[in-house]
Amino acid sequence: MMVATLLLLASIKPGETGPLATIPPFTLTERNGTKISNEDLKGLVWIASFVMVRCPDGKCPQVASTVSRLQNDLADRRGLKLVTFTVDPDHDSPEELHRYAQAHGAKDDGRWLFLTGDYDTVDKLMKAIHLRGGEGSPRRVDHSQKLAVVNRKGEVVGYFDGYWNREMVDEADFERNLLRLRRAVDKALQPELPAWMPRDFPAFNASLNALASVLLVLGYVAIRLRWYRLHIACMGTTLLVSALFLASYLFFHLVVKEGRATRFVDQAPDAPAWVALLYAGILLSHTLLAMLATPMALVTAYFGLRKWWQAHTRLSRITFPIWLYVSVTGVVVYWMLYRLYPEP
Length: 344
Hints:
This protein is 53% helix and 12% strand. With 344 residues, it is an alpha+beta fold. 30% of the residues are buried.
């Protein structure tokens, strides 16, 4: 198990590279007449898309439909906006964009912005984020079907397809593309954490579970050999490690992820149905027994501290296998969720 712990720690992913592009200054007009600048979007995560009302190739409606889907799929992400820029601002007035927004199901809640204005501003923006080359005829209205995810600092952290051509791209590949987009959004939405905190909470939590498993086995061996001091040290340390795990787990899910559940189908979309069912069974048993193991471990430790040896021994025979199962399956759940199938 010690080897497994070291391998798990070694598998933590290194830090990501820098931003792909930086949003330049801009001030444009929203479809309701409000002026929106890049500064208004600082501190928010947003998904940029580029369309035109008079789309010559029919791709813009597909991109708008994809963004409309994201409007629903990501409705629970606070601090996220969808920002659609027209690449034909000479024609696409706020009134035109208002009708276009209505036609594509944009909700009137301020989460999906439609911006128009000065042509040079839009042109500069597209060039700055590498969605339009520097050469070309003046006032051209070529557009991109890419969606750009922008972080709170105004930096582009990912490009994703907004247009799906069923004759050229498999639908499953397009869905994986959207899955990667949602992951990029969730990562960008995570709060900035102090440098001393883990960069990868799931791997850190799994490492704590692995360490608890090792300590539990050592504590069991120690008591069988009547090495009482080592047994006490191992079990006391296991309690501390488990408490640290619980604090880290709750912090990750309640603060970092803002209460959003991690679904196996999102992490491993290519997994067979039987693997998903196996994962669900392991997770259910792990969760239920974890709720039981915590008070049992505390009571067992209390009996030991009070030197009620008979009660301590009797309860520990039940607590130990449950606690060990919970610790081991904690690592298994992590492995199945994050490592069993490569990230799409």
